[in-house]
Design brief:
This protein is of the alpha/beta class. The chain has one domain: TIM Barrel, CATH 3.20.20. It is 45% helix and 19% strand. The protein is built from eleven helices and eleven strands. The chain has helices at residues 18-31, 51-59, 79-92, 108-114, 121-137, 174-183, 194-211, 232-247, 255-258, 264-276, 293-312; strands spanning 5-8, 35-38, 66-73, 97-102, 141-144, 149-153, 167-170, 186-190, 219-228, 260-262, 281-286. The strands form two sheets. Strands 1-2-3-4-7-8-9-11 form an eight-stranded parallel barrel, surrounded by seven helices. The chain has a two-stranded antiparallel sheet with strand order 5-6. Helix 7 (194-211) links the parallel strand 8 (186-190) and strand 9. The longest helix is centred in the C-terminal third of the chain and has 20 residues, at 293-312. The mean pLDDT is 95.
């Protein structure tokens, strides 16, 4: 049985003073979380910091916690620049980057401002992953594709991790599942229920078999929107209110399907359904008021994670 691991994705770091955000990150490492994650947008409904820059600020104040982009919108950037910045982060952190990559698209304006046709985003990500890997790996590298073409170029220094940091593919669409099976070192889902997760994991296995690709070491991960509380109803009210504001849509009808909500025992039961569906890595994103974030992570570390550590031993 694979061990169940927990990462941390603190929301709204921009609303904290930098020193408070750094203190939270240090605390998350001390609590034993395996990784810390940053979302990524150029333009969003709410202010958001640039993901690689933010994670780089954590590199010098931590020693072993992994640093993950969850997920980096590769289509919005030149793959060469993405390769350079991600390699730099891997070097600065001593080889701790997990490069989560996704297509995005819910906000077409950020594609407009970056000069990228919205309809090309999937094709650009698929090709961009291969470009990034070539530049991480080869000295010199050459590539000839639809959007990127070059000969004999080396980007140095190379990442510490060889032949490059693991790439986890975010998303839940058919195209994302194919991309995960053919190009990914992991799959990073969000806003799916356990049955949909099971279907996605099966689809990845099927596509990998078709491609003749082994999935040894492949990570099945899930971004969990979690709200802990003394009872389910109060936790649900908080979950719905905050996510509806964050994403500018009504999350009320989604709470029962996609939320990890309630007491620690209730949340653990909901996570168990994902484990039964094939998930073994949870990135926990507390949905709560900003000043409750650390308390929520303390509860996850004390009252949820140990249940699964005991199960895996």
């Amino acid at each position: 049985m694979l061990p169940v691991r927990f990462g941390a994705s603190p929301s709204t770091p921009l609303l904290r003073a930098p020193r408070e955000q750094f203190r939270l990150v240090e605390r998350l490492e001390a609590l034993g979380f395996d990784s810390i994650w940053s979302g990524d947008h150029v333009s969003f409904h709410n202010p958001i910091l640039e993901s690689v820059t933010l994670l780089a600020s954590y590199a010098s104040i931590t020693s072993h916690i992994k640093l993950g982009t969850g997920v980096y919108l590769l289509a919005l950037r030149s793959p060469a620049i993405a390769a350079k910045t991600s390699a730099t982060l891997d070097v600065l952190s001593g080889g701790r980057l997990v490069f989560g990559v996704g297509v995005g698209g819910e906000n077409p304006k950020e594609f407009e401002v970056c000069g990228i046709p919205h309809r090309e985003r999937g094709a650009r990500v698929t090709e961009g992953i291969d470009v990034v890997r070539a530049l991480w790996r080869d000295t010199p590298a050459s590539f000839h594709g639809r959007f990127t073409s070059f000969d004999g170029v080396s980007i140095d220094p190379k990442p510490v991790q060889w032949p490059g940091p693991p790439i986890w593919i975010g998303g839940r669409s058919e195209a994302a599942l194919r991309r995960a099976a053919r190009q990914g070192d992991g799959w990073f889902s969000y806003v799916v229920h356990a049955d949909r997760y099971r279907q996605g994991a099966a689809r990845i296995r099927e596509e990998a078999d078709r491609a003749g690709r082994a999935l040894d070491g492949f990570v099945h991960a899930h971004l969990a929107f979690v709200t802990l509380g003394r009872d389910y109803e109060k936790a649900r009210d908080t979950w719905v209110h905050i996510l509806s504001k964050r994403y500018a849509q009504d999350f009320g009808p989604l709470a029962g399907k996609y939320g990890i909500i309630g007491t620690p025992a209730q949340c653990a039961e909901q996570l168990e359904r994902f484990i039964d569906a094939g998930c073994h890595y949870f990135v926990m994103n507390p949905i709560c008021d900003n000043d409750e974030t650390e308390v929520q992570f303390e509860q996850i570390a004390a009252d949820i994670a140990p249940r699964f550590a005991a199960r895996a031993s």
